[in-house]
Amino acid sequence: MYSYYNDNTFLYINGEYTKANAATTDLYGQSLHYGYAVFEGIRAYKTANGEVKIFKAKEHFDRLKRSCELIHIPYKFDNEELIAACYKVLEMNNMEEAYIRPLVFCPPNMTLKAASESQILICAWEWGAYLGEKLLRVMTSSYERPNPKAFKIESKSAGLYVNSILASQEAKEKGYDEALLLDMNGYVAEGPGANIFFEKDGKIYTPPAGNILPGITRATVIELCQELNIPLEEKLFTIAELKEAEAAFFCGTAAELIGLDSLDGQSFSKPWAQSLGKTLQQAYKAKVLEKAFQREAQLA
């Protein structure tokens, strides 16, 4: 089992820095019993000039606050102070490249009333690309993403990830690397922890906001398409349409950007090395490392 901390690991909790193995939480908290919590996944990189930088820290903490507001968890924290705390946690743990996890959680309350106060944790650990480096064999999940009328889909809420665990576990039990979920109308939504893009006829497509978590890495990919003059369209599409794509990829902070080998056993027609996804993968890595990126000509 992966070890996220050891005897020397420090974390931040409610304004203080403490050893991870000395931190405690209340077993009667709403977050533990009902999944009533929100979180972020953030990455820090050692950039080309040797400086440790947290990628899009402001955007992540803005979303953390927005997630709390959407599900009525009080957010009385100062985001600039929290970003500074992230850097301090990295420094105290001698980390240059790490995955950072802020979590806003709620105190004891066995009722289903909204919380009247909240607490915050920031921890970090060294973590490679969540889905690995190899192209993924993906299956269409039998699970759907929750209906937006039943949940605040744009909130990165802890409880929502039970859906992701079910879908991902189903895929692995059937011999696949990861799942792809549809929305309640049968359109492609997203992976259990990543957004989906596909390429066809020189253009990139991705589902619009509404039935998905609009990821920060997703937004970065859209920015990169604009910078590289790659046509992009947000639209609803079906699994059948996706299977006609030339290439496809997942993206997310934990996964970064990773190509799909196949969907339901059907391979994509364009070699990954020749795809726009590969170009975007390289451009994304250059962006987080603050390196210059020179787009190479696509091979015919």
UniProtKB/TrEMBL annotation:
EC code: 2.6.1.42
InterPro entries in the record: Aminotrans_IV, Aminotransferase-like, B_amino_transI, BCAT-like_C, BCAT-like_N, Class-IV_PLP-Dep_Aminotrnsfr
One BP term from GO: isoleucine biosynthetic process
Can you tell me where the transmembrane regions are? none
Q: Which GO terms describe its molecular function?
A: L-isoleucine-2-oxoglutarate transaminase activity; L-leucine-2-oxoglutarate transaminase activity; L-valine-2-oxoglutarate transaminase activity
What does this protein need as cofactor?
pyridoxal 5'-phosphate
Q: What is this protein called?
A: Branched-chain-amino-acid aminotransferase
Per UniProt, what is the name of the gene that codes for the protein in this document? ilvE
